[in-house]
Design goal:
The complex is a heterodimer of chains A (about 110) and B (about 120).
Chain A lengths: L3 E3 L4 E4 L4 E7 L6 E7 L5 E7 L4 E3 L2 E6 L4 E6 L8 E8 L9 E2 L3 E6 L1
Chain B lengths: L3 E3 L3 E4 L5 E7 L5 E8 L3 E10 L2 E4 L6 E7 L2 E6 L8 E8 L10 E2 L3 E5 L1
Parallel strand pairs in B: 2-11
Antiparallel strand pairs in B: 1-3, 3-8, 4-5, 4-9, 5-6, 7-8, 9-10, 9-11
The chains are: A mainly beta (about 110), B mainly beta (about 120).
């Protein structure tokens, strides 16, 4: 079983709509959580950290549910430029050297 | 502007060739990583290094070796390239500890095709 699992999608979203997707993690000791964005044939870049109380960054909202062991990302008022693959990233306390656990990504396609 | 630079973006190599992928970071990060990324499999860690001359195997080290002689430089070596090593290779660096997840920076990737 993978440490971090994501629905690969694609999620096809009309421009202006809302899309949400989850990421589940297997280790209850997971410590830190992040969403990264990766454009086609480009490197991943940090989108946002995920805090226990949930957090927003503009049109993006991230939530953490420790009891059910998943994090979520919601994108409101989707833009064409939001089309990308969104990677879920998790750290474990044992990864003291800064190793990260990556999900395989959820592809989002925003259509006009 | 922080930078992780992978010197080779696109390479085509023959089976059996020795391949060197070079990575340099300018952020004075202790940690450096080599990942490969394949469709449906996501990023898989090959090797990482937490200090000069230190290295640890990741999840898929077979067929690869690494070298870190200077803090800013981390090289990935394919001793004898095989077709199943055709992939995109990503170098990354970060600082250890609590904020490792939001301090990781990636290079632009090296697309390797082995024929």
């Amino acid at each position: 079983r993978k440490e971090v699992e994501q629905d690969p999608g694609p999620f096809n979203v009309p421009e202006g709509a809302t899309v949400a997707f989850n990421c589940t993690y297997s280790n209850s000791a997971s410590q830190s959580f992040f969403w990264y964005r990766q454009d086609c044939r480009k490197e991943p870049k940090l989108l946002m950290s995920v805090y226990s109380s949930g957090n927003e960054d503009g049109r993006f909202t991230a939530q953490l549910n420790r009891a059910s062991q998943y994090i979520s990302l919601l994108i409101r008022d989707s833009k064409l430029s939001d089309s990308a693959t969104y990677l879920c990233v998790v750290t474990l306390p044992t990864d003291s050297w800064g190793k990260l656990q990556f999900g395989a990504g959820t592809q989002v396609v925003v259509t006009p | 502007d922080v930078k992780v630079t992978q010197s080779s973006r696109y390479l085509v190599k023959r089976t059996g060739e020795k391949v060197f992928l070079e990575c340099v970071q300018d952020m004075d990060h202790e940690n450096m990583f080599w990942y490969r990324q394949d469709p449906g499999l996501g990023l898989r860690l090959i090797y990482f290094s937490y200090d000069v001359k230190m290295k640890e195997k990741g999840d898929i080290p077979e067929g690869y070796s690494v070298s870190r002689e200077k803090k800013e430089r981390f090289s990935l070596i394919l001793e004898s390239a095989s077709t199943n090593q055709t992939s995109m290779y990503l170098c990354a660096s970060n600082a250890p500890g609590e904020y490792s997840g939001n301090t990781i920076y990636f290079g632009e990737g090296s697309w390797l095709t082995v024929v």
